[in-house]
Design brief:
The protein is of the alpha+beta class. It has helices spanning 3-47, 51-91, 105-110, 187-192, 214-219, 227-233, 236-249, 283-293, 295-302, and strands spanning 96-98, 120-131, 134-150, 156-185, 207-209, 220-224, 253-267. The longest helix is centred in the N-terminal third of the chain and has 45 residues, at 3-47. The chain starts with a helix and ends in an 11-residue tail after the last helix.
């Protein structure tokens, strides 16, 4: 039985009975939010005719919205425990899962992947474990910084800007790295080819490293404090694996190799493991979550981190 068939069995035999309770909760929340929206619309329609009635509708809308938010938190907790946790247990029952935890901000900053400092940092769906001899941590993260502007009336306006949103992962690299090496998405070379290399200098990250794998060079640009160490890390096998991962997931992927860790940030523009209100959970949703959590094992195996090629002294 392959992985997809195992997942289908899990969905039919273990998840569907749980989803019946979750589905009832979802429909209740949807009705509550629909009522809140209807009351808000009525308040708008009555405001110019009879403002007292409009105020009553506004109060009703607020009450329904608040009640819906409380119900949603309960619904979300049910979903995390009865769906997400079971998917992780299918991948590996030994993994530790904490729905409301995330990778520490110190680890995120220590990766040095993103230069911009953050003003708001949050995440969830933390997974930690060991694959053979390689320990790892994985979670969904969102880091943002704020900008403030003043309009013509002197009022301050705050805007939140995303630094990173997606899944962040780090693992033991099996060797202490002296310098720092960064592998970043290369959009310019995809568009402009070799001509783009003239504009790729980034002295804060180190020297631009040119490598001999054309597929890898199309997808990534590499900076390192040591040309020799970058080539030591990015073996032909490693470059092939990273190029294959870019093709497979088709998302911006950032890597850093610092100290004893390899860090990887995969960008997404949406929450990945959250329940929806508009529609119920389908097998395709479960399959997508499974593939995202499996990203941990794919990276470790594809990047060959368990071969212990670089043994620590």
């Amino acid at each position: 039985m392959n992985e997809k068939e195992k997942l289908k069995v899990l969905y039919e035999n273990r998840l569907k009975p749980e989803l019946d309770d979750i589905e009832k909760e979802r429909k209740t929340i949807k009705r509550i939010y629909t009522a809140a929206i209807a009351l808000a619309i009525c308040a708008f329609l009555f405001f110019s005719i009879f403002w007292v009635i409009a105020v009553v509708f506004v109060i009703g809308a607020i009450i329904f919205a608040g009640f819906g938010a409380t119900k949603y938190l309960h619904y979300r907790n049910m979903y995390k425990e009865k769906v997400v946790r079971k998917i992780i247990e299918l991948i590996n029952p030994e993994y530790h899962y904490a729905s409301d935890n995330c990778i520490s901000s110190e680890r995120f900053i220590g990766s040095k992947i993103f230069k911009q400092s953050y003003d708001r940092y949050r995440g969830d769906d933390f997974v930690a474990g060991t694959i053979e001899k390689t320990d790892f941590e994985f979670s969904e993260l969102k880091a943002e910084y704020k900008t403030e502007t003043t309009d013509d009336d002197g009022k301050k306006q705050t805007q939140w800007n995303t630094i990173f949103q997606g899944v962040f992962f780090h693992a033991n690299f099996n060797k202490y790295i002296v310098g720092e090496t960064f592998v970043l998405p290369d959009k310019a070379e995809k568009r402009f080819g070799k001509f783009a290399q003239k504009f790729q200098k980034d002295h804060k990250r180190g020297e631009l490293v040119k490598l001999e794998n054309p597929e890898f060079e199309k997808a990534y640009k590499v900076y390192s404090s040591s040309q020799q160490e970058a080539r030591y890390i990015l073996t032909p096998t490693m470059m092939e694996a990273m190029a294959a991962m870019q093709k497979r997931f088709n998302r911006p992927m950032h890597f850093s190799f610092i100290g004893e860790r390899v860090c990887c940030a995969v960008s997404f523009n949406k929450g990945l493991f959250e329940p929806r209100i508009t529609s119920g959970t389908k097998f395709s949703d479960v399959e997508e979550m499974y593939s995202l959590f499996s990203l941990i094992e794919i990276i470790i195996h594809e990047m060959n981190l368990n071969t212990r090629i670089w043994t620590k002294n």
